[in-house]
Amino acid sequence: MRRIRVLSEACQVVRPVSLCAATMAFVACVMAAGGWGARTVAFGVALVAVATVLVFQVHRAVEHLKGQSHRARRLAAEAERHYVEVLRRIIRYTEARDRYWQGHSDNVARLAGQIGQKLGLGQQRCRQLVLAGELHDIGLLAVPEAVLLRNGRLGVEEFHAVQRHSEASYEVLKPLELMAAVLPAVRSHHERPNGTGYPDGLAGEQIPLEARVLAVADAYDAMTHDRPHRPAMAPHAAVRELRRCSPAGYDERCVEALAEVLHVPLAQRVPAAAPSDVSPGGELSAPRPA
Length: 290
Fold this sequence. Notes:
- The chain is mostly helical.
- It has eleven helices and no strands.
- The protein has two domains: 2-74; 98-282, Orthogonal Bundle (Hypothetical protein af1432), CATH 1.10.3210.10.
- It is elongated and about 95 Å long.
- The model is unreliable at 281-289 (pLDDT under 50).
C-alpha cells in the first residue's frame, strides 16, 4: 500500500512535465508539417497551450500536496492526543497506588483552570492550563518512590533529585505541539517571585503567568491533603498560608483568584514571610516535594 501511495504522489508531480513534453512534441510536428506562416501561428498557439496546461497541472499538484499536508497534520494531532491520553493514564495509575498523591494532578488541573478563569485568561488559555495541570508532574516518575514518601527531612542529593522533576516533565512533553504554549509553565511551576525557586531561578515577571497559576494550585492541593510528613490543612488555613507567603513566594493575584474560587473572604493583614521562608509551612527551608 505504501508503494502504491508513493507512486501516486510521484505521478502528481511527473504528470505536468509529461503533458508539457507531449504538447511540445505535438507542436514540433505541426511546425514541421506547415510553412513559415503556419509555424508562427502554431508557435503562438503552442505557447498558450503549454502555459495553460502547465498552470493547471501545477495548481492541481500543489492542491494535492496541500491535501497531503493537511492529512499529515491531522494524523500528527491525533497521535499527540493518544500520547497525552497515555500520559494521563500513567499519572492516574501511579497516583492511585499512594493515598497521599491520589488525584493530585486532576485537582491541580481543575484549580488551575478555575484560577485562570478568575484572571480572565480566556477559554483557550484556560484549557491549556488544565492540560498543563494534568501533566505538570509527569517528571516525578523519575524520582525514587522512597524519596517522595520520606517522612523526615530530605538530604541534599534527594532534594536535587526532586528538583529535577520539573525539567524532566518539560523534556517528556516537549515533543507535543499542543503543549507548546504551556511548556514554560510546566518547567517553571516551582519558580518563586523572589528568585529562590527552581530550576532556573527566575523572579517576578520572568516567571510565566501560567506557571504562577500552577504554583498556587499545586501548593494549595498539597497543603489540603495529608502528606507523609504532615497532616492536611483546612482550606481557609491553606489560603491564609499562601497569603503569608506572598508576594515573595507566590503571585498575589493568583492567590486572591484562588480565594475567590474557594469563596474565602478578602485578604486581611497577614504577617509577611521571611525571605528564606516563602513556601507553605517553610518547605523551602526543609526541602521536600509539595
